[in-house]
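hey
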C-alpha cells in the first residue's frame, strides 16, 4: 500500500452546492473538533447562490483558516465528481466525508479515529441522528452494526456518508472513487466491500443528519429504482437475488422511519 498521506492528518471533504444557508454551521462544527490535525477541503460545485461568499467570509475570520482549502469546479459536476476531486487533492492519511448541511459533534474525529486505529480497520462508520431543518436532534437514531461485509450490506443502507472515515494506508486510495450513478455513496461502499474489506461500525452518535420535515416523502419510486439499479449494476445480483435484497431494504427503511 502506498503510504503517501500525512500520518495523523484527516482530510475532510465537503461538496458544496446551494448550501449558503447551512455551510457556515457545518464549518463551525469542524472547527469545534477536539482532534486538531485536520484539513477541510470544500469543493464549490457552481450552485449559483452565495455559498462561496459564505465560505470565503468564514475562512477570513477563522482561526483555522490555514486548514481550510477551497476548490472551485469550472462547471457543475455533481456531488460524486466533487468528492472525487477532493480525494485526489487530499493530503491526509485519513479521508472523511461530510455533507454541506450536516453537523459533527465535537468529538467526532477524535472518537472515530481512535476506533479506526484500535480496530486496525480500513473503513469505519458510526451511528447518526436525524436533525430537523435547524439540525436540532429529533431522537431518531440509526445505529451502526459492529461490522458490515459485502453480503450483509446489500439489504440495508445503514452507512451514512457524513459518518465515514477511511485509512488510505490500509485501503488503496484509488478505490475511494464515487461512480457517476444514482446513490453514488452506496455504490462506493459496495464497491469497496466487494473487494473483501469489512467496514467496522461504531454505535455512537457523532453526526447530525439535517433533514427537513416532509423530505422523507420525496419520490420513493425513484429511490426504489436507484436501489434496484445498484443491485444489478454494482452488486452484480441476479434478478431473483435483487428482489430478495430489495424487499429487505424496503422493510428496514420503513422501520427506520417509524
Amino acid at each position: 500500500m502506498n503510504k503517501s498521506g500525512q500520518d495523523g492528518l484527516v482530510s475532510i471533504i465537503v461538496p458544496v452546492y446551494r448550501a449558503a444557508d447551512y455551510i457556515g454551521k457545518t464549518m463551525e462544527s469542524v472547527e469545534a473538533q477536539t482532534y486538531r490535525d485536520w484539513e477541510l477541503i470544500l469543493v464549490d460545485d457552481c450552485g449559483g447562490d452565495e455559498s462561496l461568499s459564505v465560505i470565503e467570509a468564514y475562512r477570513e475570520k477563522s482561526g483555522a483558516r490555514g486548514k481550510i482549502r477551497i476548490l472551485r469546479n469550472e462547471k457543475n459536476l455533481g456531488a460524486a465528481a466533487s468528492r472525487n476531486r477532493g480525494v485526489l487533492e487530499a493530503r491526509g492519511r485519513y479521508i472523511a466525508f461530510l455533507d454541506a448541511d450536516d453537523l459533527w459533534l465535537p468529538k467526532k474525529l477524535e472518537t472515530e479515529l481512535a476506533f479506526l486505529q484500535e480496530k486496525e480497520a480500513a473503513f469505519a462508520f458510526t451511528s447518526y441522528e436525524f436533525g430537523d431543518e435547524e439540525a436540532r436532534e429529533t431522537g431518531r437514531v440509526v445505529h451502526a452494526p459492529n461490522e458490515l461485509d459485502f453480503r450483509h450490506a446489500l439489504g440495508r443502507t445503514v452507512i451514512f456518508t457524513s459518518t465515514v472515515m477511511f485509512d488510505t494506508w490500509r485501503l488503496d486510495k484509488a478505490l475511494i472513487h464515487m461512480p457517476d450513478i444514482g446513490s453514488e455513496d452506496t455504490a462506493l461502499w459496495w464497491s469497496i466491500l466487494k473487494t473483501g474489506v469489512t467496514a467496522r461500525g461504531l454505535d455512537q452518535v457523532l453526526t447530525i443528519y439535517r433533514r427537513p420535515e416532509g423530505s422523507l416523502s420525496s419520490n420513493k419510486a425513484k429511490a426504489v429504482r436507484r436501489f434496484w439499479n445498484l443491485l444489478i449494476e454494482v452488486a452484480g445480483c441476479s434478478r431473483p437475488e435483487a428482489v430478495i435484497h430489495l424487499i429487505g431494504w424496503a422493510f428496514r427503511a420503513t422501520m427506520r422511519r417509524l
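The helical segments are 23-31, 51-61, 79-89, 108-118, 150-153, 184-193, 220-234, 239-257. The beta strands are 6-16, 38-44, 68-72, 92-97, 103-104, 123-131, 137-142, 147-148, 165-167, 199-210.
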